[in-house]
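**User:**
My hope is that you can spare some time for a protein that puzzles me. This is the protein in question:
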Amino acid sequence: MNREHKLWIGFALVMLLSFGVLGYYGYEIYQESPPVPVKIVTTGGEVVFTGEEIKDGQNIWQSMGGQEVGSVWGHGAYVAPDWTADWLHREALFILNLYAGNDQSTTYDALNPEQQAALKVRLQKELRTNTYDPVSGTITISGERVQAVEHLSMYYKGLFTDDPGFDKLRSDYAIPKNSIRDEARMHKMNAFFFWATWATVTERPGSTISYTHNWPADELVGNKPTSDLLAWSGVSIILLILCIGIMVFYHVKSGADENVPPPAEDPLLKQGITPSMRLVRKYFWIVSLLMVLQMLLGIVTAHYGVEGDGLYGIPLDRILPYAVSRTWHTQLAIFWIATAWLATGLYIAPAVSGKDPKYQKFGVNFLFIALLIIVLGSMTGQWLGVMQKLNLIDNFWFGHQGYEYVDLGRFWQIFLLVGLFVWLALMVRPLIPVLKAKTPEKNLIVMFLVSCTAIATFYAAGLMWGRQTNLAIAEYWRWWVVHLWVEGFFEVFATVVIAFLFVRLGLLKTKTATLSVLLATIIFMSGGIIGTFHHLYFTGTPTMVMALGATFSALEVVPLTLIGYEAWHNYKLSKTAKWLEDYKWPIYFMIAVAFWNFLGAGIFGFIINPPIALYYVQGLNTTPLHGHTALFGVYGMLGIGLMLFVLRSLYRDVKWNEKLLKISFWSLNIGLLGMALLSLLPIGIWQAVESIEHGMWYARSSELMQHPTMIVLKWLRSIGDIIFGIGIVTTCWFVFQLTFKNKKQ
């Protein structure tokens, strides 16, 4: 059995076993998720909330932006609080003051430490005891807790409607007046907030930990790290060190890289360009415009952190509230990056066979129009949803689903899924003759098609939750899309495409490229698939999910430790022949991908990976630190690099504007680094210290986030943002200048 055959078997086993584990514990999540009761009642039997009100409240929260307005269980946006941490701490203080007033006729803060300790024990017994009756489907709460619910319901009603007393706080949280416009809706959203908070402190049956594994940290209610959390954090770090050692040993043992003499001239000059290949230019026009729009929305979104009710005095929140600007900003990132990658696939598939199948040109045009409709239609629906112009059912189908990165309504999700399968068909049809011919590139092409099939298929995970699915279950499937689809199979696709491009340039042998792709995919997927669970530590899942997530997500970092070698290797390749200077900037963007893979995905990713770290920093600015440097640094840079590879092939005899590309490359990288190091990292570290000392509620509070020094750190981000913005504009300028000046090419 040759090495290639063994790697194919290894790939199949990794996929089968990993998805088996992912599926089995997905079933466990269904069984052990925090129960949504039929009703919540007082000890006297009076109904406080019904199960339907909780479910409708979840939909109302989603309609106003959901995870784009603060967060729940740590997942979401970062300007407003985490509503579960906020409700929990406020509820605890209210009940403690109630106890102190009834017992001592004073406030909790006025008591001595011994008296406070006694009341905390009483409070924890009250809040942590699980009173859910699975037979009747009811949760019973005490009179004191009912008073707390009534108090907090009035508080959140004032915040989300138009109470003038909350004007300053609304501005701090970037929440417009009348985000919720009637009392019935507000009552239902309070029901959802109460239930989501109940799950953070109520102990699982037969256990001493809450449904969310004692998250968020709050000393008053007894939410603190568990022994399991500490133990599996240790395991993940030990495993990381061990596997890095094994990886380095394997790399040294495998010897030096194969040196392939480069061809005398560019092999792509001999390659024909089919009519459908020329059509991908307009995809890159849209990519460029979406990049600029996403950047502008990012500026608006970041500014809401210092001026929550407008833009330099302009009341922008009345027509473009924070929830909409952030939704569009994050969604457009996925759209333009995916479009760049899909366009690269549309170029490569017919390039292999050298001709278009029947109707290929029509299919490329059809897909282009479909993608435009999806982008514009979903953005319009999200605005209508957040502005409360849709009912709950219409909002689910056409508006804002409220889940970060998959905010688009269900109709648009289905439309996009159909579009991905159209794209898959356009990939497969030109390659069928090549597969039948059994060329040396066959196995590399098979891997290419496997990744394309996975991209089309796994987006369907976004259809696995319904309008009123339990939040814990919806989060399980959401991370299938965000982690497996975006971070997983797009990564495989990118690995294959880069290898294929180097093969086509004559810089790698086909067999070497195939073996490298298979090995890289096996290593990445070994940690990446089950590593999905590291997003689910505190979302109402069983303890084993945390154990598996901690263990396998550590493996995702292992291959990134050798990423500097990959960057150096690509740099050397770019210097092996004079004609390769034409590919300088595409290759430089690949080198940038390697750098950001190490820093953004590796270092900044791992600092929030171990359970003990994430327990204190989930939902703090350490998350957007990782998100920006990994999403744009890795996938965005790669999207631009692939786009430049295709444009270099399309415009073979055209002299590029090297000065413009130089400005673009360095502005994007320096700007992104400035954004991370000057603002996101110091803010995240400060929040983490406060979270450890005081609790998550304080780390996300207006008091901390509007501190004068914190405001200075937020403004410092503008330095990196401006430099980064120059890079975005010059990239767009380059694409349009190149394509419009050379229309006949």
Remarks:
- The chain has a mean pLDDT of 91.
- Strands lie at 39-42, 47-50, 71-72, 75-76, 132-133, 138-141.
- The chain is about 70% helix and 0% strand.
